[in-house]
Amino acid sequence: MGPHRVVHGPEGPVRARVSPPPAPVRAVLFDFSGTLFQISGYADRVRAVVPSPVGDAEMDEILTNLEAGLVDPEVVEAQRARDVSARAHRHAFTTWYASAPQLAPYADALYAQLQAPEHWLPYSDAEATLARLADRGIALGVVSDVAWDLRATFAHHGLADCFSAWVHSYEYDTEKPDPRLFHEACGELGVEPGETLMVGDHPAKDGGAALSGLRAYVLPAGASPGSERGLEAVLRML
């Protein structure tokens, strides 16, 4: 057994060794949906595409059908590897929308909303957090499992200029936590993975950045569109 190999027991390394202090964080990578932005509510989106008025009782039935569709076997199967290509992403979402019978004729229109910048809302603390990071000289990048270029959405809300790296999963035929995505963003920013923090809302995908040598911070799920996300925690971590 080589002298440099670290063997871990149930509680930690068998042979103690002095570890160097962690490198300072020079860059932060952000996920998109659920981290910096959230799309407008489904009730508003449905009313925007259905030509006739939708009452509260009918809307409740539509939303119940959407919730039920999330466990429909056909919908579940359509979600597999949905972010590796634009085609797979469209199929995944339109299959889910169409699982609510009332929305089947409007599945394509609902999907078009996903790529429309005006339907996405930044969380209320996103702009201030990004500005403070930039003021500290921290390089910023976006790493997102997505099926279209996000720069137009960020630009629509005045946030595109904050970022120097854009890594979209569909352009690489893969999804997070594939190390290629994180390492590509680090390369574009000119930083090492050990100098980089990944911030997102998915424990396996965004938290998986730790397996690629980055640090990771996973936000709790459930923040409503336009609300405060708790992004100031990122500033405290630096």
From TrEMBL:
Keyword Hydrolase set for record: yes
InterPro entries referenced in this protein's UniProt entry, alphabetically: HAD-like_sf, HAD-SF_hydro_IA, HAD_sf
Xref: Pfam families: Hydrolase
Keyword Electron transport: no
MF GO annotations: hydrolase activity
Region entry Disordered, spans: 1-20
Keyword set, alphabetical order: Hydrolase
Descriptive protein name: HAD-IA family hydrolase
